[in-house]
């Protein structure tokens, strides 16, 4: 009884930062993202007679906090399917883990999809989004292809992502990898610290609600310029809320800021490019597909040491080898 699923990372254009409920992972703000077509994670779940769940990531057994997160997804699938067996989970990332490249979004979306299938739970995408959310909030969005919006909601039932239609120019996301090192502070710890200590957190939450509505309207209108400008605002406001935490959380490095500056210069040269960054120093640049090569050329002229990967809108999580 093994089921295997694949999912891709997503990059938030309107960011999620801060939880209203830590256990259920109900976010303080809604968010909106683009699922990519690079760096997939493939996860197999086998229902087993073992006494405990076993989790392996990239060939090594997982313990501690990360395996607890896997267990909370498996527990939810067992609860919903009315089954009690344990599971063996084997997951392979194609992206450096925990480097702010959304490896956890892909991993938990693949896990939720494979686990539901392995345990015989017939779950629609909304339910899979709610299950994936228990592992990592951003994973709720990787269930869907392309542009997705995660409605914050107020409880397990109402907190899920859904796909949005995009009829604007074909999108690309240039990923500038300045570091593949594991981050020093996990997003979970950094979020909690921001919620508990940053005087800017309330302003972040209040301004995010307005920004999300503006961005959703711009997505519906296929308006890349507005989506892009709001993308930069959301990223910088999120990082500002962390700068205000005690002790401060600073994921952006000098190279990250140089990339943001370069993107601004590209815009003044008529290239539609907009920067964002997550819980790490790597920068992602939203642009038109037909201008992605110019964006890579412009960025690498300033930061030649980074690795550049051009991504496009990618598929939602899906079973590649199911039990049925
Ligand atoms: O879902 P987590 O715990 O990996 O947190 C994701 C947080 C950001 O990537 C920084 C923003 C986002 O919305 O994806």
From TrEMBL:
Organism encoding this protein: Paramicrobacterium chengjingii
Domain Diphosphomevalonate decarboxylase-like N-terminal: 7-161
Keywords tagged on the record: ATP-binding, Lipid biosynthesis, Lipid metabolism, Lyase, Nucleotide-binding
Pfam families: MDD_C (PF18376), MVD-like_N (PF22700)
Family: Belongs to the diphosphomevalonate decarboxylase family.
Mvd1 C-terminal domain sequence ranges: 173-307
The protein's name in its UniProt record: diphosphomevalonate decarboxylase
Alphabetized GO MF terms: diphosphomevalonate decarboxylase activity
This enzyme's EC code(s): 4.1.1.33
């Amino acid at each position: 009884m093994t089921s295997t699923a694949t999912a891709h990372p997503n990059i938030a254009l309107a960011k999620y930062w801060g939880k209203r409920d830590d256990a259920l992972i109900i976010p303080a703000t809604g968010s909106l993202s683009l699922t990519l077509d690079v760096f997939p994670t493939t996860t197999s779940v086998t229902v087993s007679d073992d006494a405990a769940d076993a989790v392996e990531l990239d060939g090594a057994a997982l313990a501690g906090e990360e395996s607890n997160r896997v267990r909370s997804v498996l527990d939810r699938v067992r609860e919903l399917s009315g089954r009690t067996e344990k599971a063996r989970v084997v997951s392979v990332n194609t992206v450096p883990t925990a480097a702010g490249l959304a490896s956890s979004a892909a991993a938990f979306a693949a896990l939720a999809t494979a686990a539901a299938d392995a345990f015989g739970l017939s779950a629609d995408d909304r339910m899979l989004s709610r299950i994936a959310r228990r592992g990592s909030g951003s994973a709720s969005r990787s269930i869907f292809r392309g542009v997705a919006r995660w409605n914050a909601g107020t409880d397990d039932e109402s907190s899920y992502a859904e796909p949005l239609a995009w009829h604007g120019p074909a999108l690309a996301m240039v990923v500038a990898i300045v570091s593949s090192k594991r981050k020093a502070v996990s997003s979970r710890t950094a979020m909690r610290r921001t919620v508990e200590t940053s005087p800017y957190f309330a302003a972040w939450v209040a301004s995010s609600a307005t920004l999300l509505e503006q961005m959703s309207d711009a997505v519906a209108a296929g308006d890349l310029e507005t989506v892009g400008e709001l993308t930069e605002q959301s990223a910088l406001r999120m990082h500002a809320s962390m700068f205000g935490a005690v002790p401060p959380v600073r994921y952006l490095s000098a190279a990250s800021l140089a990339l943001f500056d370069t993107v601004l210069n590209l815009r003044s040269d008529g290239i539609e490019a907009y920067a964002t960054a997550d819980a790490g120093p790597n920068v992602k640049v939203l642009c038109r597909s037909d201008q992605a090569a110019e964006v890579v050329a412009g960025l690498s002229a300033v930061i030649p040491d980074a690795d550049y990967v051009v991504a496009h809108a990618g598929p939602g999580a899906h079973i590649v080898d199911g039990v049925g």
